Amino acid sequence: MEQNDKIVIVGVTGYIGVWIAKLLTDMGYNQITGTYRNEEKAQQLQSMLPNLNLYKANLEEQGNWKEVLSEAKWVFNQGSAFNPNDKTYKDKGRTKQKGIRMLLQLAVESGSVEKIVHTSAESTIAYANEDPSKTTFTEDDWTDENREGLFDLHMVSKTMEEKAAWSFINYHENTTNISMTTIHPTHVMGPSFAPWHHDMIYAMLHGDRAMADSQLYGIDVRDAAAMNIELMQSPESDGKRHFASAFKTTYSTVLEIIKKQFTDEQIKAVLGDVVRIIPGDVAADLLSPLQSTSYYQDMVPRMFNRVVYKTNYPEAYAYEYTEPNTTVLQAMEKMLKDKTK
In order of start, what are the domains of the chain with their CATH numbers? Predict the structure, then answer.
């Protein structure tokens, strides 16, 4: 990557996308193009990073994608196709498949794109395994999107999307030999660069409800963005899938960090009602009648802190990650600041 190369960030207004744009700007790259859906967010981002060239585009239609990709060398894909009329997660998956295939085909037709870093998810790797005794996962593993009883059906569409991307890259359709790397973030937390984001802390902990305590792997959003850039710059990452994971903690630990640092009023301002966390062993006992289900086999080992994510490629990134305490506290501080504006 040279500083005058054209770089495209698909979904630049997203949680990770804005940090990729910010880091690239700080590194001196001066030909950064971003695509967006929401006009208001784009205008705010333009005022924050005036160097960006922004295009309204979505992956459901060709629109102006040829112009977006013209003379581009490097593409960070933070987006997915979306159709509000999709009724099932298989439908959503088929929409995502069409979107990623369209993006890759247009990248081939551009004649200039050399590499794409596609953001997939932890959820395409480590769930719905037929062997209930399996607790260690690497990038060689795939979630079975056809397994019934998945606890989060977003896994279905994301797995279908990623498989379609690899199918395109690895076969005759990729006539210009574009390289691809996929990155698989775990729970993404940390301060948003733009004021419209809530990170996984909000998603995990808000609401008047009960939830089982469980382990979780996490990564600071800034580290996820930096890893995207590192993977783009590394030829050794070509053709590979990469976990993006910095630390291992639990839901109760995250909530404890928050309660030690912030007042009840501050927590209420950010999270509203806060979940009631049930100890993992208690929840596992309550779920014992469901032992034959994918939900039980995926979640109970996590309740007992038994699941291990082990990357095949530790050399691909320095793993100089932000510590979870810093990530959680800075995320809360940023959300509180944005709430009071």
Answer: 6-339 (3.40.50.720)
